[in-house]
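HUMAN: Please help interpret these tokens:
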Amino acid sequence: MSRQHIEIRQSFNAPVETIFTILTDHESFGNVIATKIRRVVDSPEENKNGAGSVRRVFSSMLPAFEETVITFEPHSLMEYVVSKGSPIKNHIGRMEFSEENGITRLCYFIDFDPRLPFMFLGPVLKSAIEKPMRKSLEKLSKRYVP
């Protein structure tokens, strides 16, 4: 099985606080990517979407699965892992945020291994994750055109 890597870089003409809040709030993120996402465990931290929070993702193509936030640094970083279900394993998602002159830059990395040992499965899953994610982030970026 081959490890899959997705890297998406997107800029937004908005403050980092705005974009960070939209993309790290579980329900809001679901709206961005047109997927139902529900927080099922609140973080014990100040932000209910922070480290330790768990979200359930309801995909139209797959059974629901859960992701757990493992790192949450306001306005700079969120990392999460698939913690239950899903046809992928050894997953980590990492959203890095930075701002320069009012422009927010997002570097979004997703790494995973397919759970089943079929050679074609990794690239198929990568495409199924990457294409709609990239399109959704581009669409969100267009909301913040000067």
Remarks:
- The domain at 4-142 is CATH 3.30.530.20 (Alpha-D-Glucose-1,6-Bisphosphate; Chain A, domain 4).
